[in-house]
Amino acid sequence: MEQLKGQPRLPKFAAPKRYDIRLKPDLTACKFAGLVAIDLDIVSETKFIVLNAAELSIIAGTVSFTPKESSQVFEPCKVDLVEEDEILVLEFRQKLPIGFGVLVIGFEGTLNDKMKGFYRSKYEINGEEKNMAVTQFEPADARRCFPCWDEPACKATFTITLDVPSELVALSNMPIIDEKVDGPTKTVFYQESPIMSTYLVAVVVGLFDYLEDHTSDGIKVRVYTQVGKEKQGKFALDVAVKTLELYKEYFAVPYPLPKLDMITIPDFAAGAMENYGLVTYREAALLYDEQNSAAAHKLNVAIAVAHELAHQWFGNLVTMEWWTHLWLNEGFATWVSYLATDSLFPEWKVWMQFLEESIDGLRLDGLAESHPIEVEVNHAGEIDEIFDAISYCKGAAVIRMLHSYLGAECFQKSLAAYIKKHACSNAKTEDLWASLEEGSGEPVNRLMNLWTKQKGYPVVSVKIKDEKLEFEQMQFLSNGTQGDGQWIVPITFCFGSYEACKNFLLQERSSSINLDGVSSWIKINVDQTGFYRVKYDEDLAAKLRFAIESKMLSPTDRLGILDDSYALCMARQLPLTSLLTLISAYREELEYTVLSNLISAAYVAVMQAVNSSDRSGYESLLRVYRETDLSEEKTRVLGSLASCRDPNIVLEVLNFLLSPEFSSFERAKEVEEFFSTRTKPTMARTLKQSIERVQINAQWVQSVQNEEHLPETVQELAHRKN
């Protein structure tokens, strides 16, 4: 038995085929009881059955295994719940016969308050506080609700039965097929599910209102809300119905289930969870109040719904083989949610917001403490650490880059073939590349492995020499050092107009192409579809500034140029004077997203009224900065201070920004010492990334302090602004 402990994954003695689960939650005592019957295929001779279980009590005398072709009942001689490994080890006196059989286990547990497993969430009805029962199983918490093979590749069908108070609504993945009321309690029976992974099983029990609609092919779609809030679910309901129709065409596979429920949960750790047929959301991610919600919130709701519904195909129907391929789930769903939202609401120009998310990925992936898109996960305990901007934002960005390179039609057809081939099964990253390579004839596997299996990304330096445009790639690191990574980079560029575009693969460290007499501005990485940064020589940069001032570039390209220059400046690859000169080209910028990366508007207005004889607004903002404990508020203040028209105040602001009150090596050391005795494995990488960011800021401040001609440049730009 000892050799079964301490293993990262379950042994392969047995494979689950079907679960019959009965749960009885007690919402007053916050406990639950359950019984699970699992159809198993014993694939090799063994005296052991090992499955996952955590924070459960196994009821004595309830565990047995009965082979299908025999009346003999095997009862374990030892039942060992190994909490540190979250496994249940059943030892039998004799070897179990190879073939099919049924494993039965009775168990009890607590409806916890940790927002994972089978947990309780509080809500109010007529001023009275009540408990609801909710499940959240991704990544590895189904084991906290019932003993199971809690790994994504261990797919099976599920039949759920719930014993609940008669007055409550009880939901699961599948439609209700029967309901029997016995006084204050009712037993609810659900249709058997298709094959799926344990992390997608879901149960919700409580009091709710709902709205309902149907797709053109009869799929019932409902939005469940807290009592009295159902009207706020109308927009999400409309988006869901339209998105199901869109995905049915895009993936060339119908929605696999007979219904789709979406429900808001008051206490919810994630933004949303794609449980098959029963998607759970934080209230803010699903509800939209036509009278009071901000317009930007409408976009967020649409993207959240489109993201979770994409998972019904890409994640639920075709599931990652193991958590190493998490990006396959999250990166793809993030990208396709923007594709769907853009199709439904083209006037929203959602790719601009997508670029903002890509920038989040670039900033995180520029750290030495980043990680590849594909992280080798050895143990379930490591999973939470990789749910970050790399999985979501970089994953989505490289999918978009590949989509742009292969072309929309080729990509869609190859994707549909991939889903058809791996439906009701599991897949690895390489399986997706194989389908796309087969459909396109391009070296997709070789190209994309460089983007998913190594961390980081390149900065592509561009210059003109001898009538040629020369490209050189080098790994970009925000700390200013040079990495040794190398990629196959899909380069796109236009010159003088978006009508004149070219593309090629930069497969070596450097390459060049003939300019054929081109003398106008040149923009590399058209519309920022590539996941890399660009560094221009001074001549090219000057022409781009002219293109920005002349409104010749798209908003996405204007934002991309700005962010690349800022990142290069922070990495000490570009002087601050160059960045400030670039910023001056945005004097007449009107695009909100570009502006929001330049200045947050209220504080700017205050600073524009400040001068040497009336410093009150400036001093008030400094007081806000020093007294607030909200990091977003500090960021807003810092982003506005240089908006003053008085060059003397601007110089004072610059000195403040370069003071230790901004970032310093001492701050980095302070953070490091604080966490030296408080670090948990799940936060180790995030902590290292945070410390590295502080060090990068401190290095940049130190570099700027030593920069020549900076005061003169600041004064010149301030006068020019006047």
UniProtKB/TrEMBL annotation:
SUPFAM superfamilies tied to this protein: Leukotriene A4 hydrolase N-terminal domain, Metalloproteases ('zincins'), catalytic domain
Keyword terms, alphabetized: Aminopeptidase, Endoplasmic reticulum, Hydrolase, Metal-binding, Metalloprotease, Microsome, Protease, Zinc
Domain annotation Aminopeptidase N-like N-terminal: ranges: 16-200
Cofactors that this protein relies on: Zn(2+)
Endoplasmic reticulum among keywords: yes
Domain spans labelled ERAP1-like C-terminal: 521-602
InterPro entries the record matches: Aminopeptidase_N-like_N, Aminopeptidase_N-like_N_sf, ERAP1-like_C_dom, M1_APN-typ, Peptidase_M1, Peptidase_M1_aminopeptidases, Peptidase_M1_dom, Peptidase_M4/M1_CTD_sf
GO cellular component, one term: extracellular space
Enzyme Commission identifier(s): 3.4.11.-
Its membrane topology: Peripheral membrane protein
Binding, Zn(2+): 307, 311, 330
Name of the protein described by the UniProt record: Aminopeptidase
